[in-house]
Design brief:
By secondary structure, the protein is α+β, with helices and mostly antiparallel strands. It has 5 helices and 4 strands, in the order ββαβαβααα.
Length: about 160
Amino acid sequence: MSTYIGFNLNSNRQIEHFQTIENRYGINSDGGKFLFGQAELALKGSYIPKEEVYLIPYQGAVQPGNIERFIKDMTHNGGLSCATHFPLRDIAFVYENTSPYGIHNVDSIQRMLQKAKDKSPAEKTTERLPRIPSRKGKRYLQQGDYCNKYEPGSPDVQ
């Protein structure tokens, strides 16, 4: 069983949070749980910070001092350029738009983010607008309704 590290870096490249991720069901699944957990925590706050969330394999001793030193070395030596990472705000977007019963893994997060990026700005805007049913051509009263109101275009109801 290999170990991964999940961690958040703020906009100043400082470590905000880190934890080890046991690779029980595959990093795709366990990593997705970590990413969604970070989104859930962020959404409980008053705003979502501008952070990047990373997943990287780790081979050293699993002790907080060693892990923190490893992350700092990777950050300063440019070793994070090819690591799996997402902006926390993007993960929160996916989290809010995903069914709680859906598959929450790294691949599904990547697919949803790509789908969101592929949509035009107009599609994104209209998607967020509430759907208002059209009243055109609809009668407000149906035959058999017992009401004393008369609506234009509907039969007199007594």
